[in-house]
Specification:
Blueprint (H helix, E strand, L loop, with lengths): L9 E5 L16 E6 L6 H7 L2 E11 L7 E11 L3 E7 L5 E7 L2 E3 L2 E3 L2 E8 L4 E10 L14 E5 L6 E5 L22 E9 L3 E3 L3 E7 L4 E8 L11 E3 L1 E8 L8 E8 L4 H23 L9 E5 L5 E2 L5 E3 L4 H10 L7 E2 L6 H18 L3 H13 L15 H4 L2 H19 L2 H14 L4 E2 L1 H12 L4 H8 L5 E10 L2 E10 L12 E7 L3 E7 L5 E6 L9 E3 L8 E7 L16 E2 L6 E4 L7 E5 L5 E6 L5 E3 L6 E8 L4 E8 L1
Parallel strand pairs: 3-13, 19-20, 20-22, 23-24, 25-31
Antiparallel strand pairs: 1-2, 3-4, 4-10, 5-9, 6-7, 6-10, 8-9, 11-12, 12-17, 13-16, 14-17, 15-16, 18-19, 21-22, 25-26, 26-29, 27-28, 27-30, 32-33, 33-36, 34-35, 34-37, 37-38
């Protein structure tokens, strides 16, 4: 399937969290009420915007901490990909445009909704600069219920400080500055110049190159960022701040890394959070080691405080409501997962949020050993609080679904945890993460790109796992039956699923812990191929009913029953032996040797959707001519066995 680099615009009302010290992390609480509206751009307009590549943005704005009203200009430098006679970009309709220039000359412009267009004949490969002079008040929930919260103004209920701050993810950058909202078109660099009252500071991306006192009670903060950046990661925060800086010294870093913090100018705020802020040093040094060098180490990392119950991973300077280890580690993890490498589609927000959420687990494991156990149990419990839902986002216009705490964050983190378990090699796990990040450096990635990276690194076929856990829904409940055979044992592992109509079977491995007389124990990993598997364990010794399923909690699952069953036999142990799918790759049809008479088949595509389903009849062949080219999963189901095999349709 071709992935299209555009989206429709959705508006929402934003309810400020009254508790800035909420334990919720990141954006999951931002969208309390959603209102879908008409597309911000139609297909023809989208096609126009895709004809150029953004190289650079410059914002030069006048702002204050008491109102979201702003004025100034934005420049966009871009290069034509193909011949164009019109340049189209976006700015929210309530903001007034006084003039637009093209390569320094004022030009006429038209507006239709959010679309701004100018006539310009540009040949392929030619660069151009558009400057938009504009002013106004960005939409808010209070001033426009159909608007967003690209720019907000509020007073901290905890500390009393008034702040104006941006939060553009996922669709709200155009609500406060003129831009092209395309995930796959990162600007190569940006400058953000903000003029504010002398009592305030303005924080943004990159390096603060200078603060210019204009002599009229205002100062201009000039921030310059020289790395690729996605539109929604460009940010600003304005308040009466004090600056508090610390430095990290990761092993292998060419120089200490500045961690620059803009904290409320309240005599009690910094002392309250200073120890938590200082821990950012430890987190930076940990992630530098495990994920690879900090992508922006030649500039900085930092925080700007703003009164909301979470954080937003603005590139090099997170906007954060408060400080605790989980939130700070999550947002710092985003600098690799979300900023350095960004999801290529909002369907694949897992690339950002799943790994940032798992960064919390990694932080606890390494710096708060023991606490990671309860953390992952809480993650699993939340995932299992409802039976269905996929990590992959089908409704990628629904902000509440994009930032689902249960699915995107917690199930996303749990999925990474299980992949780590399947590799069974932490050195390989972290090497794979490093290699993936460096291979996609400063670019974008789909979820299947992660899948393929893990498959290539390990030799494990992760396609069924992604079909079941990423595109699929639900979780398994495992039950165990066992029977003693002298010094050996038969063990039957069966499972049901919470969303059987979507994902009837989970084929990830699972561990069982056996406790034997004398209080000795053995943990064995079993490869699961169907909803019921029978295994013979040689030389295990005498078993008892003390059997634990997934004792280290690597897999989201519930426990069913654990019983001794004297009726278990070896009769069906090798029932599926001799079955083979061929040819693979295939074209018009596939064949399966030794197929059972009572067998039905289902063919799933890479997104876990059933493409073909029927009873096998007329021999051992299945017609596949109607399938598009791609990778598929065949599931054969009979009264005795289930058989699963991936194949490629040419």
């Amino acid at each position: 399937m071709k992935h299209l680099s555009f989206f429709l615009i959705i508006s929402y009302t934003f309810v400020l969290g009254q508790n800035e010290n909420s334990t919720h992390c990141s954006k999951r609480d931002r969208a309390k009420h959603l209102t879908l509206k008409s597309n911000s751009l139609n297909l023809a307009q989208i096609a126009q915007s895709e004809k150029y590549d953004v190289n650079y943005y410059k914002l030069n704005l006048n702002m204050t901490n008491t109102s979201t009203t702003l004025s100034g200009y934005a420049e966009m430098k871009a290069t034509a990909i193909s011949a164009i006679d019109t340049v189209l970009y976006e700015l929210f309709s309530s903001l007034s445009i006084s003039s637009v220039s093209f390569n320094g000359a004022n030009v006429p412009f038209t507006r239709s909704g959010s679309a701004v267009k100018i006539a310009a004949n540009v040949s392929p490969g030619t660069s151009f600069i558009i400057r938009t002079n504009y002013s106004g008040t960005p939409p808010t929930a209070q001033t426009n219920p159909l608007g967003g919260s690209g720019m907000s103004n509020a007073t901290s209920p905890s500390w009393g400080n008034e702040v104006v701050w941006s939060l553009s993810e996922p669709f709200c950058a155009y609500e406060w500055w003129p831009c092209k909202q395309s995930l796959t078109d990162k600007a190569d660099s940006c400058d953000v110049f903000i003029t504010v009252p002398n009592s305030c500071k303005a924080g943004s991306n990159g390096v603060l190159t200078q603060v210019v006192n204009l002599g009229n009670g205002s100062s201009r903060y000039e921030w310059k960022h020289r790395h690729p950046i996605d539109y929604y990661l460009i940010s600003v925060a304005v308040a009466e701040y004090v600056e508090y800086n610390v430095f990290a010294n990761p092993v292998g870093a060419p120089a200490p890394i500045l961690i620059q913090n803009y904290i409320y100018n309240n005599p009690q705020t910094l002392p309250n959070f200073q120890a938590d802020i200082d821990e950012t040093v430890d987190f930076m040094e940990l992630f530098y080691d495990l994920y690879g060098p900090y992508p922006f180490e030649d500039e900085k990392y930092g925080h700007c405080m703003a009164p909301f119950s979470g954080g937003m991973e603005h590139q090099t300077m997170t906007t954060q409501g408060f400080f605790n280890p989980a939130l700070t580690a999550h947002e710092l993890g985003h600098q690799w997962w979300g900023d350095y490498v960004t999801c290529a589609s909002w369907c694949d927000i897992w690339v950002n949020e799943g790994f940032a959420s798992y960064s919390e687990q990694i932080m606890l494991e390494n710096l708060y050993p023991g606490q990671e156990v309860q953390n992952m149990q809480s993650v699993h419990n939340n995932v299992m609080s409802q039976p269905g839902g996929s990590v992959w986002v089908l409704d990628s216009l629904n902000e509440a679904r994009i930032f689902s705490g249960r699915l995107t964050y917690d199930k996303g983190a749990a999925l990474v945890h299980t992949m780590r378990y399947m590799l069974n090699d932490d050195q390989l796990f972290y090497a794979t993460l490093k290699n993936f990040l460096s291979s996609k450096a400063f670019g974008t990635a789909f979820g299947v790109d992660v899948r393929d990276a893990f498959a290539q690194a390990s030799g494990i076929n992760f396609t069924p796992f992604f079909d079941e856990w990423y595109f699929g829904e639900g979780f398994p409940t495992y039950s165990v039956q066992w029977k003693q055979l002298g010094n050996d044992a038969l063990v039957q592992i069966s499972h049901t699923t919470s969303a059987p109509n979507v994902t009837p079977t989970f084929t990830n491995p699972i561990d069982l812990k056996f406790v034997r007389p004398g209080n000795t124990d053995t943990t064995i990993r079993f490869d699961i191929t169907s909803n019921s598997n029978l295994f013979q364990i040689n030389g295990i010794g005498t078993l008892s009913n003390s059997i634990s399923i997934d004792p280290q909690n690597w897999v989201v699952n519930q426990n069913g029953t654990i019983t001794m069953n004297e009726l278990l036999s070896l009769e069906s142990l090798n029932a599926s032996e001799g079955m083979e799918l061929y040819p693979n790759p295939s074209n018009e049809e596939i064949y399966i040797n030794n197929i059972p008479n009572d067998c039905r088949y289902s063919i799933y595509d890479m997104y876990g959707k059933v493409q073909l389903m029927d009873k096998v009849s007329g021999g051992n062949s299945i017609k596949t001519s109607s399938l598009p080219s791609g990778t598929y999963l065949l599931v054969l189901d009979s009264t005795k066995v289930k058989y699963r095999k991936t194949f490629v349709k040419l």
